[in-house]
Amino acid sequence: MEWREKKPEFTSEAEDNREAEEVTSRARLRMADLLQHPFDVRSVALTGLFILAIFYTIYCLRAVLLPIVLAWLLSYLLRPILRTLSRIKMPPMLGAALILLALLSLVTLGVSALAAPAAGWLVKAPSGLQELQHKLIPMKRSISQVAKAGGEIEKLATPDSSSKAAVEVQRHPITEALYVRTPEFISSTILLVILLFFLLAYDGVFIGKLIKLLPSFSDKKRAVSIAQDIESQVSRYLFTVTIINCCLGIAVGTTVGLLGLPNPVMWGVMVAILNFVPYLGALTGIICMTIGAILSFDSLGYALIFPAVYLGFGALEGNFITPWVMGRSLTVNPVLIILSLVFWGWMWGIAGVILAVPILAAFKIFCAHIKPMEPLAEFLS
């Protein structure tokens, strides 16, 4: 019987360090070479205008570009499953259809299961806010006194305008947002499903067509290397992060459920989804869980146990589990992660916040394969 050595799925830390050192050395040499040449002000200005034009285009075409980017990233996440089905002689079209059907069924099941508890929290939100304010009165007395004094000063400084008051009928902001965004959401979802199906069904065809357009063999070889590296690393990142986030959601949801917090499944799903957003997601989740726990329990001390549980599991995941599993292959500067979250959140909203890190990681991998852009890849690390 012939034995073959199985290639490890994840690179070792030593290999990651060696690759990082090689990229760093090349980037420093390139940076030193660039600094020896004078900068052309006109070229820099034109480059800046070109970048601003790209940003403006991305913002204006977000309804089209967002489902395209999301379908591209989801294809990387689901492609290993498709290739596993291909090994058992399943046609790509059928495999892609089954994967999409399973994905849509899972999303539909999750939405239907979480709709009732989420709607319950939304219904009791107004009364819950009053209850929360009542429970936090001892902590807000000094703030209330300052606010009251400020209000009295404002009344003295503002002239009486009651005679000029006008009746204005305003639409509820949530209703208006749903009225405006629902058609766009439906069309983007349809585009996302169609694109995802064809990206899965025609695995590698689009990249192959694009590579054939390149003139020289060296360009073709570089394009293949970039495509394979981006696909392997981004796919590994998305798959690993998804598994870690699901485990984190299960751990937090199970723990808070055992401690008595209502709707533990909803909290677990919230934790798993928010953990796709580095730093800001965990902060948002802790705030939401703190409010929910305070509204659910009379004892403030007992209510604070639940965000502490969330914080403990999040710290364990962020400081030990994820670095141990992922290594340093996709290490990105934390400051740039925050800036990327802000930028893509401003561009594309909540979906942009979720997609910010994968986009930044893919851009870093792309820069690492282009010699003139190696300093930028080092800057992103």
- Assess the beta-strand content as a share of residues: under 5%
How does the overall form come out from the CA principal axes?
A: globular
Low confidence ranges: 1-11, 161-169
Radius of gyration over alpha carbons?
Answer: 26 Å
Our count of helices gives 15
Order of helices and strands: HHHHHHHHHHHHHHH
The secondary-structure class comes to mainly alpha
Q: Which short descriptors sum up this protein?
A:
mainly alpha, 15 helices, globular
Sum this structure up briefly.
Helix content is 81%, strand content 0%. The chain is an all-alpha fold and 381 residues long.
Account of the 3D structure:
Among the domains are: 107 residues, no CATH class; 91 residues. 81% of the residues lie in helices and 0% in strands. The longest helix has 42 residues. The protein is mainly alpha-helical. Helix 3 packs across helix 14, helix 4 runs antiparallel to helix 7 and helix 9 packs antiparallel against helix 14. The radius of gyration is 26 Å and the shape is globular.
Task: Describe the secondary-structure layout.
Layout: H1 13-35, H2 41-60, H3 62-87, H4 92-123, H5 125-135, H6 137-157, H7 173-201, H8 205-212, H9 217-258, H10 264-274, H11 280-296, H12 300-303, H13 305-326, H14 334-368, H15 374-380
Helix pairs in contact: 1-15, 3-4, 3-7, 3-9, 3-14, 4-7, 9-10, 9-13, 9-14, 10-11, 11-13, 14-15
